[in-house]
Amino acid sequence: MMYSLASALEYLHDLNVVHRDVKPENLLVCDTVDGKKKLKLTDFGLAAEAKDALFTVCGTPTYVAPEILAETGYGLKVDIWAAGVIMYIMLCGFPPFVSMSNNQEELFQTILSGHYEFPRPYWNHISNAAKGLIQGMLQLDSDDRYSASEVLIHPWITSEAHVDHDFEQLSSLANQAAVEQRERMEAGEYFHSRRRSMDDLSTTSADGGSTFSKDNTDLGPTESSG
């Protein structure tokens, strides 16, 4: 599934097209002639050419990248962030960024901080390689975030989730380094910040995108596992 999604994004991004609303609701599952299943990416209502930085605040709250919320300008890699959120959900059943009080402003602040975890027991059976791929897709700094092409060549993808022991060990070390990096960012070394609140974002942006619905938030693991 992640291979199909990354392949679709690679095709779009090679054309300098950003989808801007990658989420499960916009993915269709279809059968191939060899009996396998793959995904098709749909709904290009918010898609745009990304030759220059975009500033429209749009998308779906759970999957929105921090640079969209910060209004600092964004490009193709907001789709990779959304794909990383989808992969996280597919492996454990709930999103990485949540508001336990179902408050959208709180959700956005969590996204901007980049803080997420792999909580027990939901992630006990998930490999370090899978976690490493997610961390590469959910980098706060879009320059450090994986491209679609890099996702496609990641060993967790190319081995169909059957990575060798050596890579699993390397992934464990890399994951710890990524956690430490996020902690430094949260301490203030790198932190996206909001320029405007939801109330200030109540009108459509100039370049044609739509803003968020205030009630479109997601619950965390406690609620989703009920």
Description:
With 226 residues, the protein is mostly helical. The chain has a single domain, classed as Orthogonal Bundle (Transferase(Phosphotransferase), domain 1), CATH 1.10.510. 40% of the residues lie in helices and 6% in strands. It contains nine helices and four strands. The strands form two sheets. The chain has a two-stranded antiparallel sheet. β2 (27-31) and β3 form a beta hairpin. α1 (2-14) packs antiparallel against α3, α3 (78-92) packs antiparallel against α5 and α5 (128-137) packs parallel to α8 (165-189). The longest helix has 25 residues, at 165-189.
Quick recap:
The chain is mainly alpha-helical and 226 residues long. It has helices at residues 2-14, 66-70, 78-92, 104-113, 128-137, 148-152, 155-158, 165-189, 221-224, and strands at 17-18, 27-31, 37-41, 48-49.
